[in-house]
User: Fold Thiamine-monophosphate kinase from Candidatus Methanocrinis alkalitolerans.
Amino acid sequence: MTDRCSDLGERELVRKITEILGIGERDDCAMVEDGDGWLVWTTDILHRKSDFPGIATGWQIGWMAVAVNLSDVAAMGAAPLGLLIAAAIPQDAEVAFAEEIFRGMNDCARRYSTRVLGGDLDSFDELALSGTALGWVEKDLVLRRRGARPGDLLCTTGTLGSAGAGLRVALEAEGRGEMEIGDPDLRALTKRLLLPSPRMEEGRALALSGAATSMMDNSDGLALSLFDLAEAGGVGFLVWEDQIPVDPLVSEVAEGRDDALALALYTGGDFELVFTVRPDLIDRARQACDFAVIGRVLEEREIFIEADGVRRRMEPRGYQHMKTPKPARLHRSFSSPPQK
Amino acid sequence: MTDRCSDLGERELVRKITEILGIGERDDCAMVEDGDGWLVWTTDILHRKSDFPGIATGWQIGWMAVAVNLSDVAAMGAAPLGLLIAAAIPQDAEVAFAEEIFRGMNDCARRYSTRVLGGDLDSFDELALSGTALGWVEKDLVLRRRGARPGDLLCTTGTLGSAGAGLRVALEAEGRGEMEIGDPDLRALTKRLLLPSPRMEEGRALALSGAATSMMDNSDGLALSLFDLAEAGGVGFLVWEDQIPVDPLVSEVAEGRDDALALALYTGGDFELVFTVRPDLIDRARQACDFAVIGRVLEEREIFIEADGVRRRMEPRGYQHMKTPKPARLHRSFSSPPQK
Assistant:
């Protein structure tokens, strides 16, 4: 029998690909040496079926395509140098819709002090936007997935679960044939999903603080990010359940406390930064940006979550952040060790 | 009536997009200032329907995705720093086929002294590969689309028409349900289409020679490249028909001399470099690489082709380098003026 990609599963396929390409360690960006710094460089491809719910406007779609790439630059502690976007737009799309997409891109890039410098235009049957972002960070300040040391504090920016809850709201509205969300709280949740705010200022300030020891964005959800950070750093984590900053609005959607927690742990799309901080420098980190301390780094290579004095193992699962017709959606970034 | 992208046409849509993004001049790559040089940076998205004929192997598909991006870096006179690839692979694709794609990418990158440093993996219904390549060139050596001066000599590397003829061979084979081309000459033509050789060494050597005044690759065909160079430089061209280096193999496929010439002028996919050279430095350029002198730069903003002493205007048309079910295929790269 012939092996199909869907049989193999995403992680195993990425393992094969990175082996072929000679890529070892993975970070949110690839790194290219540039004088006394690193060029950090990422690409993310999004498409209609998996990434843009029906209620998303053209402007929101454009914003998202830029935001998800900038988030990877932020996760390295880098300042952005610009973006390119390859846009595959269906030929029967309305011109006004296409223009809105590019306005959304432009507005997102400029909001974060950078620009879309160019790209490629093609037509596909399915709308797809493939972005690439470039950034720069000083060699001694770069933040990578590896670097956490036992005893470091585990931290996250912002609140969690909003995008997952927002997706639930969006899919339910779509199911009812509604294109707008009337309730302001529910609309706020869908905005967290559709208009991610990459943590550019926070990522850069944390790098400049010198207090953080490792970092990545939580685009695949907090749980999977912790598994990636643990693997890269050869460490483990203890997460304090009651310290996880679940977005209070999530309770409007979740079916009870456990469901809200699941949205915060296993939902992709929040685009917050997850990082570790040297305990003696926690005050310096607090001067860089607001964040929550949600746990600490363990020497033992296990990830536990603790509630009411009871520890259980965290599950290595990530929310499939968009429903797809097939179960085993592949979506995984891979990048290389530093290149000279 | 609502305007659709297909009604508007590709050039007008790109004009709108570049206006929204604030992009003025166009080059093969966007440019980001980097010390005493420029980072040059491009993205190209390819997909099954328009870019990969049925006879293409996975390895060839991967090679092509890397080669087309490197060609843009070559066209700026830059040395490559690396590539990223966002790959959207159908879930029912065979694992062996997916692996071949990445082997082709890896082999092409390494052939041209660079590497695929990372990427993104997703699954689409249609196979799509979105690449991005980064390069570096000294500020005083960069070659752009603008720069040609009246009297400069117009030149091209390699031979022309091969990819167009190769496409004809490939489509005819596909029509007959054949997956392999038996005749060695015809197979050589399809290889020019399926395994483009980006002119990395030539582009870099021409930049280092200091003899070239403007350059781009001919990915959309010689004719369209000349219109782009003319527009960027505010000049015109006189092309000597009998000096155009039509690939001799093209005659195996073309219906007579005019058809062979049309394949050389209006066919995309050859990935040669078209450039202008100061006439007093032509010997220095010849030390950089092999090329043909095919005409000269005019002050008058017109593009003529001359045969037997008779001048006619060149048509601004580019061969649609892959057949698509719809006529108005959009495919156009756009990039920005230099960014500091």
